[in-house]
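Supplementary Note 3. Input sequence used for the single-chain structure prediction.
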Amino acid sequence: MLFSSIPFLYYFIPLVLICYFAAPKKLKNSVLFIFSLVFYAWGEPVYVFLMAASITLAWAFGLLMEKAKTPKAKKVFMIISVIISFSFLCYFKYADFFIANFNAATGLSVPLLKITLPVGISFYTFQIASYTIDVYRGDTKAKHNIIDFGTYVVLFPQLIAGPIVRYVDIAEQLEQRTHSIEKAAYGIQRFCIGLGKKVLFANAFGELCSIFRESGEQTVLFYWMYAAAFMLQIYFDFSGYSDMAIGLGRIFGFTFLENFDFPYISKSITEFWRRWHMSLGSWFRDYVYIPMGGNRVSTPRWLFNIFVVWFLTGFWHGADWQFIAWGIFYGILLVIEKLWLKKWLDKAPSFISHIYVLFFTAIGFVIFNSVSIGGAVDDLMGMFGLSGLPLFGEETFYYLRSYALMFVAGTLLATPVVKNVLKKIAATESGGKIIAFAKPLGFAAVLIIVTGYLVDGSFNPFLYFRF
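The predicted structure, written as discrete structure tokens, is reproduced below.
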């Protein structure tokens, strides 16, 4: 079930809210747990059992670590728990990748398993692993109530697309959280913002990307339009889902950490990755990079640590070589920045730094969105005029004119310009009154327009099926 769907907006979420706020305090987590399982089972009923097994095992090993009599025993339980969690992920997400590459290397024909990837398994595996490791480190206590722990793992607002919520960040909120009109109002507003990003912008740019792929007139300009469209699609899609998750969490009394901070205004790739998918970046930093020694090691080992993190980051996103290439590509850029380029970028005019970031981000996302390494090479050759394509054509200009307003609006909304202007208006007495009056009308209009798009059956892809 998608947030941007009629069943979710007009059937599921109203029913959840009624049951949740009607339930006594001690049963609220149970209500969320049950409805979260229903939410997940809506499209994948079989994999609910996999999720239940993951929850039960992680919960049990948490208790075993707490009761362990020696540090060695505690460490053994932690390692077993992490191995089990990642074994599920590796089997369902990477088994066919390893078999295909084994066949390519040996000339054998081991049949592929052709397993359907459980939606959200990459996200909830990382959440379970962070809980296990934090219990082992002593950063949090093991959760004795399995319903509360299960609620943390399957909480539907952030289950299928993040942000990756760590147990330590919401442990207290699972036991004690408050609800208020102000929190609910903020949550509804934040959800509507994310819904608008997803349906009105991400879907529109995604449709242009599909048009490009199906076009019989691919030109150099059309390739760059496609690259820009995908950059905006994935930003509005992913940040939109994060906004919706944060908004829904706030309605239910949870405060999730931010996941995006206008990454396209960055002046370096290092800054970009501090602003993009921040929950994933901090996860790899705290559970992979720092335990490996971070930057407090020799230079060769430090560079090795960076490449390991970015190899894993790419591989986490998908079981294909283009994802690995995408991760290594950014690993190389980050190493170059840390060793030399960052100092120059800090002194360079802002517009040069911004162009640098946007240029390499476009290349990176073209690699990311390709279907294979060969496809990535073909796309990059097309972008740089190395495929014998014309610079532009009639169809290219048609779609450029058709989407010009969307590109302008999307570019503005991907920066803090609109947000800052509204803040300045709201800071004045008269402007504050206007904003206070217009805000609910604006969010109601977004919901109505989005509903119209969804009822019409408009283009509504879900990028995270790949992850």
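Residues 259 and 453 are 27 Å apart (CA to CA). The mean pLDDT is 92.
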